[in-house]
Amino acid sequence: MDRLIQLGTDIAGLWGTYWKSYLNGIKNTLILALVATLIGCVIGFVCGILQTIPYSKTDSPVKRFFLALIRAIVRIYVEVFRGTPMVLQAVFVYYGLPYFTNNAIMFNNIWVAAILVVSINTGAYMAESVRGGIMSIDPGQTEGAKAIGMNHFQTMVYVILPQALRNIMPQIGNNFIINVKDSSVMFIISFTEFFAAHRAAVGATYQYFPSATIEMIGYLCMTLIASFLLRRVEKWLDGSDSYELAQADQLVMSAGTYSHPNRGTPFDEHSKEYQDRPGQKSGRGRRKGRNHER
User: Which class for 108: exposed (0-12), middle (13-18), buried (19 or more C-beta within 10 A)?
Assistant: First the structure.
């Protein structure tokens, strides 16, 4: 119990001294994660769509060559950035590019480097998610779109992607939460995010565990709030749970509904609505009269 009281005292002392640094780190972390996730989603959608462009042996050799080349490039990109740690990708981009280009390519703005690294990493994961989301759509959707004259671009934009977006929305949220946590490796390039604030406080006070507790609580709060908001977005995309049948048009009411054999539908001559229409009684009278004459 005494240790818990001491921990609370140390946390209160650290927060009272470095709260501005912690809050600034939280702000930078959220901005980096949000911007990088959005850019990564764009990269992922482009790569996912490029991987699903259809081609056959009947197409021209030039088209088949370029599509095969594009798929190979996308595949290499996905495997490299999914198979290596983000911290090493940050080192390669921030320190490796100036090294190989003799300082011709340098990052004067640390934000640009951090967003680039996290975005490219996120795009590699999103590319596979988008490809899987597109492939999960029933092929009949594509066949129906082609049957009414849509090309591949129109089919993707108006038919496939709206449905695939709902399927991959949980993965988009998952990538955002991962970026909130994994952006902590950006301290390697001196980006001042939440974990960098923790390292600065520890370097000044040597109170590693109390500062790490603040970090854990901060990351947990960010991820829980993000999860709650993402679930709300998914529920909004699902739409309403109950639907009311439109009753203004008799065609709507009769379409697809069961008709009793003795009643028929409002458009059946056996129905009361049909018999009560003007001219129907006289028509029946004429028919009866003709039958009587016979």
Answer: exposed
Tens of pLDDT, residues 231-268: 888 888 776 665 555 555 555 455 455 455 555 544 45
Separation in Å, CA 106 to CA 32, 66, 81, 110, 112: 20, 32, 21, 10, 11
**Diameter over CA atoms, the chain:** 115
To the nearest whole number, what is the mean pLDDT of the chain? 81
pLDDT (0 to 100) of residue 267: 47
Task: Report the distance separating Cα 160 and Cα 142, nearest Å.
Answer: 7
Locate the DSSP E strands across the chain.
none
* 2-51 helix and 110-135 helix, angle to the nearest 10 degrees: 60
Neighbours of 183 (CB within 10 A): 26
Mention every residue, 6+ apart, whose C-beta is less than 8 A from residue 204.
18
- Could you give the CA distance from residue 256 to residue 36 in angstroms, rounded to a whole number? 48
Distances (CA, A) of 224 to 177, 184, 193, 218, 228: 9, 17, 19, 10, 6
Q: Which CATH number do you get for residue 234?
A: 1.10.3720.10
CB 18 within 8 A of CB 197: yes
Cα 269 from Cα 273, distance rounded (Å): 9
Q: Give the model confidence (pLDDT) of 171-193 as tens digits.
A: 888 999 999 998 888 988 888 88
d(CA 236, CA 216): 30
209 & 232 share domain: yes
**Per the structure, how many domains does the chain have?**
2
3-class SS of residue 244: coil
Domain limits for position 261: 250-293
CA-to-CA dists, residue 146 to 48, 62, 136, angstroms: 20, 23, 18
